[in-house]
Amino acid sequence: MVIILSAEKGMLNGSAVIFGLLLLFSIVGSRLFCGWLCPGGAVQDYVSSANNRSWNSKGKNLSKYIIWAVWFSFIVFLWVHNGPLKGDFLYLVNIDMQYIIIYAIVMTVIYLFTLLTGKRGMCHSLCWMAPFMVIGEKLADLLHIPRFRLKAKPDDCVSCGKCSGNCPMGLSISDMVKSGNMDSVECINCLECVDGCPKKAIGFGICRKRQ
């Protein structure tokens, strides 16, 4: 909301800068933000104790890209229409009751949506920030830039399934390990699968995409 209000005034604010930095960071850091820093993700991980079912499919995952495309296109339209842009990182950054209420409403929606859907339901279906990082990952792979990613040791896997059970995104990690390909745009690099593997069949590091 803040970035839209800023764009209406022809202002490039802190929200826009943060989204741009997330895109740039993801070129090397992939989706580490989602797995380690996102407050919405923390709320969803808390909710997973009440609803631990998987919410992960192509159709469900596609919706967030539609939401992002509409939202971002509208912002770009406002920037163009109200240009030339002026920069103010702290524009609309103040302790105001209406913003506190809006933030509370957003967090409540995240909580309730995840409670109804399952593991990281909001990440899969609603998140307007994830596409920025997915684009960053795709750019890195296209330009052959090394980025943070999981690594599999298929020969060490004993098919215990703990990695898939621990995955907060409901991914079939065990199948990914067996195939030797750990790349998934839905992976948030939380490393739960790495920590939970009894045979250390999953590692991580910064490397290029497998050819």
UniProtKB/TrEMBL annotation:
Family matches, as SUPFAM superfamilies: 4Fe-4S ferredoxins (SSF54862)
Transmembrane segment boundaries: 12-34, 62-80, 100-118
Taxonomy, superkingdom: Bacteria
Domain 4Fe-4S ferredoxin-type: 148-176, 178-207
InterPro entries, alphabetized: 4Fe4S_Fe-S-bd, 4Fe4S_Fe_S_CS, Electron_Trans/Redox
Keyword annotations: 4Fe-4S, Electron transport, Iron, Iron-sulfur, Membrane, Metal-binding, Transmembrane, Transmembrane helix, Transport
A Pfam match: Fer4_5
Keyword Zinc belongs to the record: no
Protein name: 4Fe-4S binding protein
